[in-house]
């Protein structure tokens, strides 16, 4: 019985099928790398840096047109979209959380702000408004008038003669008495100091001091028991 030779196309198809079968077995057993595994895996830092990463897809290998008799190659494994979901979760975790600060308390409009209580007015406190030096005449004792009258009478008696001399003596005695009285009062006169104080309530009062005061105009003073003192 004569064996017929195989057609060349059949031989080529058989070789192609055998090669593809071996390649599929190598991929399934891990000897050969699967299509799309040559691409390096994305690092976690790159995955977190992406705000909205696109779903990872593996490019399908270019389709080859096998002969009609060739068996279809083993379907390439497609990576499940686990990396995309993990990337989204990482992005959500990496997103900083900002806490709202409570607004500062503000005084409501129309709310009355309590005013500070005014300090009580010191009725006995004030400021020296003026200081006047006044000469106070002394009191006559009559000795000056008597001495003046005698001296005036003697001088008047030296003028004129007769009734005119008598009249001049009387006038001299009267004038001498008055002049003697004034001289005595002037000799007994002394100085006093009138101090005008304007109090904080607006009123004024005058005080008399026998000795020169230690204050000046504008100094602050206080009345204690009717006596003018320096305000502390």
UniProtKB/TrEMBL annotation:
Residues 143-184 form the Glycine zipper 2TM domain. One of its GO terms (cellular component) is outer membrane. This is Surface antigen family protein. It comes from Azospira oryzae (strain ATCC BAA-33 / DSM 13638 / PS) (Dechlorosoma suillum). Keywords: Membrane, Transmembrane, Transmembrane helix. Residues 40-85 have a biased composition (Low complexity). Its main location: membrane. It is found in: Membrane. The chain crosses the membrane at residues 12-32. Residues 34-100, 204-232 are annotated as: Disordered. The lineage of its organism: Bacteria, Pseudomonadati, Pseudomonadota, Betaproteobacteria, Rhodocyclales. It holds the Pfam family Rick_17kDa_Anti.
């Amino acid at each position: 019985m004569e064996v017929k030779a195989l057609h060349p196309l059949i031989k080529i198809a058989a070789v192609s099928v055998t090669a593809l079968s071996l390649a599929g077995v190598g991929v399934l057993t891990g000897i050969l790398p699967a299509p799309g595994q040559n691409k390096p895996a994305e690092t976690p830092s790159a995955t977190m840096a992406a705000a909205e990463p696109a779903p990872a897809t593996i490019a399908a290998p270019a389709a080859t047109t096998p002969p009609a008799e060739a068996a279809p190659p083993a379907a390439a494994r497609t990576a499940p979209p686990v990396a995309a979901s993990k990337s989204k979760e990482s992005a959500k975790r990496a997103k900083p959380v900002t806490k709202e600060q409570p607004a500062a308390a503000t005084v409501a409009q129309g709310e009355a702000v309590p005013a500070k209580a005014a300090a009580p007015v010191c009725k006995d406190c004030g400021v020296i408004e003026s200081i006047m030096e006044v000469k106070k005449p002394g009191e006559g004792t009559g000795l000056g008038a008597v001495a003046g009258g005698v001296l005036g009478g003697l001088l008047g008696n030296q003028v004129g003669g007769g009734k005119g001399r008598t009249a001049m003596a009387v006038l001299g005695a009267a004038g001498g008495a008055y002049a003697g009285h004034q001289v005595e009062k002037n000799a007994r006169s002394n100085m006093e100091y009138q101090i005008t104080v304007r109090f904080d309530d607006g009123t004024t009062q005058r005080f008399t001091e026998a000795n020169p005061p230690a204050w000046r105009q504008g100094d602050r003073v206080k009345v204690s028991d009717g006596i003018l003192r320096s305000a502390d």
